Amino acid sequence: MVGSVPAVLALLLDDNAYEIVGVLHLLTVIVAFGPQFAYPALARAGASSTIATLHTRLTMPALVLVPILGLGMVGLSDEAIGMGDTWVVLSLIGWVVIAAVSWFLVRPALAGDAHNEPDSRSKLAAGTGVTHLLMIVILVLMVFKPGG
After folding, report:
1. 30-58 pLDDT, tens per residue?
2. Do 33 and 132 contact (CB within 8 A), yes or no?
3. pTM metric for this prediction
4. Residue 30 pLDDT
5. What is the domain count for the chain?
6. Residue 20 belongs to what domain range?
7. Burial 88-101 (b: 16+ CB within 10 A, else e)
8. 16 versus 62: which is more confidently predicted?
9. Are 69 and 25 in contact (CB under 8 A)?
10. Distance of CA 27 to the CA centre of its chain
11. Calpha distance 10→109 (Å, rounded)
12. How far apart are alpha carbons 72 and 20 in whole angstroms?
């Protein structure tokens, strides 16, 4: 019975690898962006150190996995999706901007808010606003696939 488990897993992964990677991709997107909707309210409630920990330990690692799994889907698509497709290239560019904003604006704003810097909340609001806007743009690109 134990020997058949790897065979079943291999068969499952072989036939459904694209779908499994797709589910993981969507889960990492939810983990990377979902908490950011609560950041402003949590900051107003004085939970800055909690947000900073959440951002560093959960949101940023998930944000790193998003394009890895997305590119895995491109590779598993049986050439239905190409790396040169307009929507893939624009999505990757959007992700780079999101990662940069998250690292260079949101993360320092969270650390600054913990130390009572006056402009930290405005930086946090700007960073999460840009992140959410780009997330919507990327979502539209992935649904409508222009130039793909």
Report:
1. 999 999 888 888 877 878 788 888 888 99
2. yes
3. 0.83
4. 95
5. 1
6. 4-144
7. bebbeebbeebbeb
8. 62
9. yes
10. 9
11. 45
12. 10
